[in-house]
Amino acid sequence: MLQMPRLSIVIVTYNSAGQIDACLRSLSAHPPSVNHETLLVDNASPDGTVAAVRQRWPGVRVIETGANVGFARANNMGIRQTSGELVLLLNPDTVMPAGALDTLVASLDARPDAAVAGPRLVDASGRAELSFGTMIGPLAELRQKVLVTGTDRGAPFVGSYVDRLTRRAHEVDWVSGACLLVRRSDAEAAGLLDERYFIYAEDVDFCAAIRARGRRVLFTPEAQVVHLRGRSVASMPRATETAYRRSHLAFYAKHHPRWVPFLRAYLKLRHRLPDR
Predict the structure, then answer these.
(1) Domains of the chain and any CATH numbers
(2) At what angle do helices 20-29 and 49-56 cross, to 10 degrees?
(3) Torsions phi, psi of 147, nearest 5?
């Protein structure tokens, strides 16, 4: 008798032909112990991502969106096309080490009050990424940017501080959508991801909607996943910048409307205000 999957892995791709093999190879080499399914949702990649996956990974189901509909909408399409009680949103530029998925699943199983769990993300050299935080607001966003920029630039003090921050398991406001495990019931109760966000901020908003229902978000450093940041959007920097700014404004309009005029003025001053 065919078992229903307990875990649905949803991977959204765009121009990911150079990264998706490593991601799927790691999932194949280190599969979770629970019954699972893998679905790839492709945002009309012109680089042959779909053909490559269908040829090399026949066990992976593929959905083509027909257009670049953005990260949130594509993930929602994937969630609706799967059936596992747990859903893993996973970027194509990630590599899953042995045991990481089982550890992440176990962290949710141990906490019935929690809806979301995210792992410790590191780059190819093992340097930690600040992949969680407090709810985005002007001060929290400034702090996050200082720490992320300092880490990216190799500032020793900042890097060691982020490394310490990311070694402690605790409840957080949000975890990165690059690797986010969520209970399907909680995702559906929150209305899935808000599709007004094309790229960026959708994971923070999603976790906020889940927390608004009294549910918890966990950062689980015992699970560690490699994240090769920026590979999937590097081919369209100008379009990505515009999409980011639009999502940024949409987030503040939803959560901090009083700050929107100041944000718009700041972006205009820096010549980064996106066209309407």
Answers:
(1) 7-267 (3.90.550.10)
(2) 30
(3) -70, -40
